[in-house]
Write a structure and sequence with these properties.
about 450 residues; alpha+beta; SH3 type barrels; Fumarylacetoacetate hydrolase, domain 2; 2 domains; 5-stranded antiparallel β-sheet; 11 helices
């Protein structure tokens, strides 16, 4: 799966693509839907290179691409990427490779001039959710998160018996998914205080973030046709950052017997850029399970998935409080972990989701679930970091948090780096808590 587009020696004529720590070198080329702000333009597909965006609508008319790459650019010029997502891996690859050649330092002068005219600064961009998301499924792939949460409620038996056999998930709410920069009101709902005889309707007091990845479906499947694990990743368009905000006090009262409802449906934030599975090829690692754990049932197992099914995506969550911003201070790092610790792989999620005949459609979104690592400093939610609110997190400026306050902003970051490969990143995913409605 590694090819010439992953060559760490490759350079772009876009100078900013070579900057140290750059998320978007020529080896990445993620897609988003965006436009130049304050110009009344239509949203359309764009590709990140350094600190610039390649306008795919302009590129499709520039005479740079041909064949499948041109067909792909035209499809990706729409206000959502669904039609492009439906075209499949060969077409996705054709566009990425065509862009790689056009942005490479060895591109001829005519190509450079024509592509240069299709660029605009990311700093001037306004982003939209990159696809029309018909369905959203949130999974629970971190055994460490599941164990930490389970210990709060079932100290003697934190993991339920099915966890190590079946990828757990629930159907989430697609309508409240928004792109990075989302600002949302603190949710209200029914809350049952432990010492009260009945619940009350009130603003959430235990508001939390969840550090996740989002997985976009590309090519779908017909109703009744399960996707084999050997083919599963051919149905995955790419990966983004995702914050699945959670109202823990509302959740505690409502989740039995059918699971999350209003505690999860008020806001979900995704990063604008989608990193392709092809770009992630150098960062694959093997799946590992503790000795003694059951092996996946046959439909969830393949030698290829076992050897290279995990992705070493580094993940970080930061908190920016009102006081930090007023003092001109950066966000405070709360945790850092890696997607490699997930118990279930991307391919296993796709395969399990369809084993009953469920049809997936282009633009559908999976959440990975909170991606906590094996130690507490790798926990992806405040409920874990504070051990259920019992041990507040201390910030560098002396502030403390058990759960989020009004005005708090949470930022997720993700990147990949490995020996012999160029570092690539996912950009940032920001969301801000506003006061509850009157």
């Amino acid at each position: 799966m590694v090819n010439h587009t992953h060559d760490p020696a490759a350079r772009s004529w876009v100078i900013s693509a070579q900057q140290a720590g750059q998320d978007f070198p020529i080896q990445n080329l993620p897609l988003a839907v965006c436009r130049r702000a304050d110009r009344g333009e239509a949203f359309r597909g764009g590709v990140a290179i350094g600190d610039q965006v390649v306008d795919l609508a302009a590129l499709a008319e520039a005479g740079v691409l041909d064949g499948l790459a041109l067909e792909a650019a035209r499809a990706a010029s729409a206000p959502s990427l669904n039609a492009f997502m439906a075209m499949g891996a060969p077409v996705w690859q054709a566009l990425r490779h065509g862009l790689f050649d056009a942005l490479h330092v060895n591109a001829d002068a005519s190509t450079v001039d024509r592509v240069q005219a299709c660029l605009f600064a990311q700093a001037d961009a306004e982003f939209a959710v990159p696809a029309q998301i018909g369905d959203y499924t949130d999974f629970y792939t971190s055994v460490h998160h599941a164990t930490n949460i389970g210990k709060l409620f079932r100290p003697d038996s934190p993991l339920l018996p099915n966890y190590k056999w079946v990828p757990i998930g629930y159907h989430g709410r697609a309508s409240s998914i928004a792109v990075s920069g989302q600002a949302f009101r603190r949710p209200k709902g029914q809350i049952k205080p432990a010492d009260a005889p009945s619940p009350v309707i009130a603003p959430c007091q235990r508001l939390d973030f969840e550090l996740e990845l989002g997985i976009y479906v590309g090519v779908g499947n017909e109703v009744g046709d399960a996707i084999d694990i050997a083919d599963a990743e051919q149905h995955v368009f790419g990966i983004c950052l995702l914050n699945d905000w959670s109202a823990r006090d509302i959740q505690a009262w409502e989740y039995q017997p059918l699971g999350p409802f209003l505690s999860k449906s008020f806001a979900t934030t995704v990063s604008p850029w989608i990193v392709s599975m092809e770009a992630l090829a150098p960062f694959r690692v093997g799946l590992s399970r503790p000795e003694g754990d059951p092996q996946p049932l046959p439909y969830l197992h393949s030698a290829q998935n076992q050897a290279q099914g995990a992705l070493d995506i580094q993940l970080q969550v930061g908190l920016s409080t009102q006081r930090l911003r007023e003092a001109g201070e950066p966000d405070a790092q709360l945790a850092r972990t890696s997607y490699r610790h997930a118990y279930w792989s991307v391919a296993q999620l796709v395969t399990h989701h369809t084993v009953n005949g469920c049809d997936l459609r282009p633009g559908d979104l999976f959440g990975s679930g909170t991606l906590s690592g094996p130690t507490l400093d790798q926990a992806g939610a405040l409920i874990e970091l504070t051990e259920g609110g019992q041990k507040p997190v201390l910030l560098p400026n002396g502030e403390q948090r058990t759960f989020l306050l009004d005005g708090d902003a949470v930022v997720l970051r993700g990147w990949c780096e490995a020996p012999g490969a160029t570092r690539i990143g996912f950009g940032e995913c920001w969301g801000t808590v506003l006061p509850a409605s009157p």
